[in-house]
Structure to design on (84 residues):
């Protein structure tokens, strides 16, 4: 089970890294990044469920950070649409 968590964390890191490393051309790129964050949240929830939510609080903390990233991306999309 620990291997599954490690693999899930690695995959999530890769997805988020590629999403944010690419140049942002317009707000549609930010929406794609937001979609990747949604996928990461779903993967984290699956990993937490597979481990009966017992990950010493790290799963909840990771989800909290992903939700914060989602909020920031939404603010970035709004700013990009407003031309700021």
């Amino acid at each position: 089970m620990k291997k599954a968590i490690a693999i899930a964390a690695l995959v999530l890191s890769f997805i988020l890294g590629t999403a944010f490393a690419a140049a942002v051309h317009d707000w549609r790129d930010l929406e794609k990044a937001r979609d990747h964050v949604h996928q990461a949240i779903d993967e984290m929830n699956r990993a937490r469920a597979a481990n009966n939510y017992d990950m010493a609080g790290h799963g909840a903390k990771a989800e909290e950070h992903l939700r914060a990233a989602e909020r920031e991306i939404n603010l970035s999309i709004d700013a990009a649409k407003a031309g700021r």
Observations:
- Residues 6 and 47 are 10 Å apart (CA to CA).
- Residues 2-82 form one domain.
- The chain has one domain: 2-82.
